[in-house]
Inverse folding.
């Protein structure tokens, strides 16, 4: 794989990551889980910033544009949900949706970590130490997010996705991420 291909694959994955978090934000908004919606809006902006940093690095250090890549819709929201209204979703369905969403998020972050580690190794093996260091930072970032997501998912599983407890925590989660959203820098 060439340096161009590595950065192209990573850029493609990052854009797909923004799509994943944007769809999760809509998913949780639809389910009436505003705190989780805000959480994914925050991660959407973080992914966007990481993508911009990656592109800027590639342009400034490799003097080329990141290669164009095609994008596949991650389809976080089940297709049949588009025919329902929020009021049609009962408590049990919300709990199942939350469990499925948590697992999907964990799986996404694991996939991201594997990809970034593979790209790091490719760059290091090519002798592209500076580029590998940039990717190493991304590996560490996703590793931290994966740790947080796995803990979060375990916490929800331990409470057996009790929608009463989950609904009760939304205001606090929302407030925490509202503050974080205000701190996100898009430059």
């Amino acid at each position: 794989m060439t340096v161009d291909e590595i950065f192209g694959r990573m850029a493609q994955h990052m854009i797909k990551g923004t799509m994943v978090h944007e769809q999760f934000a809509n998913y949780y908004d639809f389910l009436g889980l505003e705190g989780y919606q805000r959480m994914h809006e925050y991660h959407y902006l973080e992914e966007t910033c990481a993508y911009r940093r990656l592109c800027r690095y590639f342009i400034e250090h490799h003097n080329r544009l990141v290669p164009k890549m095609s994008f596949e819709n991650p389809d976080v929201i089940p297709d049949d949900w588009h025919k329902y209204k929020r009021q049609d979703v009962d408590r049990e369905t919300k709990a199942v949706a939350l469990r499925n969403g948590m697992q999907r998020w964990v799986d996404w972050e694991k996939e991201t970590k594997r990809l970034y580690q593979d790209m790091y190794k490719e760059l290091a093996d090519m002798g592209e130490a500076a580029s590998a260091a940039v990717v190493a930072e991304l590996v560490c970032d996703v590793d931290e997010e994966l740790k947080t997501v796995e803990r979060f998912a375990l916490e929800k599983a331990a409470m057996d996705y009790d929608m009463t407890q989950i609904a009760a925590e939304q205001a606090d989660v929302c407030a925490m991420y509202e503050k974080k959203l205000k701190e996100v820098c898009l430059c």
